[in-house]
Design brief:
303 residues; eight-stranded parallel beta barrel
């Protein structure tokens, strides 16, 4: 396993996208947020263009400038960077992978196409084309419940065996019974999970290597991870159980989570505005009370 592949573990937070109140990307705040996450949180890796980055609401011109700023900021630290490829076209996705590798991304994440329901053969071809385009790790997102595309377990195992740069972000609810067969078939398969880290402790137990959550309370995810792998299971379980109660509500939809995460960043005084480009989720009075309670409950960790 290469050194970069060995680093694919722990808490790989996906950065939120700060906007100004008029809807413009706030590049200054974005740079400050990237710096904060990589120097103040104990993070193991940081990613750009996850769902919480609102990649689906950004222009290509904005992405060009954001990618360069992101990599320039992260490269000043020892934190591995990850940039997600969300392009629908296979040829463009492969070219984008080479571009990101050439400007210094340590790893990539690939969101395979699902719009207009391409065949499984075309989806597999898309994955393989990006894997073959670069040498750096490629984390392939596999969320069959969300996309409606199910690939046989053996197909992903074969991919992991053939391509030494293949890693996977597998999202499924409930997760434990779905992910366990992969690691029983290939113990060293590099799997991370999303869904805000729900079931994370049980998933760590079977060999899942880390979580890719949003970024507004990264320190809490790091505290749970560190406690678990220091064999302080009681502390890990206590923190996780408290967090889970909030996550089950906040994970109602991706838009609700990213809006709540951004509001938490504002209340922690890490970014200035909680603006989300519309169409967007708008916080309820209950959401606001829950955020206040959350920040009070975890104040010892989050400050």
């Amino acid at each position: 396993m290469t050194e970069n592949m060995q680093k694919m573990k722990g808490i790989f937070a996906l950065i939120s996208m700060p906007f100004k109140d008029n809807g413009d990307v706030d590049f200054e705040e974005f740079g400050k947020l990237a710096e904060y996450l990589t120097t103040k949180t104990g993070i193991h890796g940081i990613g750009l263009y996850g769902m919480v980055s609102e990649f689906h609401k950004l222009t290509d011109y904005e992405k060009t400038d954001l990618t360069r700023l992101f990599l320039e900021t992260v490269q000043k630290t020892n934190v591995p960077s990850l940039v997600s490829i969300t392009d629908y076209s296979t040829v463009i996705a492969a070219r984008k992978a080479k571009e990101y590798e050439s400007i210094g991304a340590d790893s990539l994440m690939l969101l395979p196409p699902s719009f207009l329901k391409p065949s499984i053969e075309e989806i597999r071809y898309h994955m393989i084309s990006v894997l073959e385009a670069v040498k750096i790790p490629v984390v392939i997102q596999y969320a069959p419940q969300a996309t409606g595309h199910f690939i046989e377990n053996s197909g992903l195992i074969d991919m992991a065996n053939k391509y030494e740069n293949a890693a996977f972000k597998i999202e499924y609810k409930p997760a434990i019974d779905f992910l366990k067969p992969f690691l029983e078939m290939k113990k060293d398969m590099i799997i991370l999970t999303g869904y805000a880290g729900l079931e994370m402790l049980d998933l760590y137990k079977i060999g899942v290597r880390g979580v890719m959550p949003a970024c507004s309370f990264t320190e809490l995810y790091v505290a749970i991870y560190d406690a678990y792998f220091a064999d302080d299971l009681a502390k890990a379980r206590m923190l996780y159980d408290k967090l889970e109660a909030y996550l089950k509500t906040w994970m109602a939809s991706p838009e609700s989570l990213l809006a709540i995460e951004k509001e938490i960043l504002v209340r922690r005084k890490i970014i200035k505005s909680s603006y989300c480009r519309r169409p967007a989720y708008h916080l309820s009075a209950k959401d606001s009370r829950d955020i206040d309670q959350f920040l009070t409950e975890f104040s010892a960790i989050l400050g």
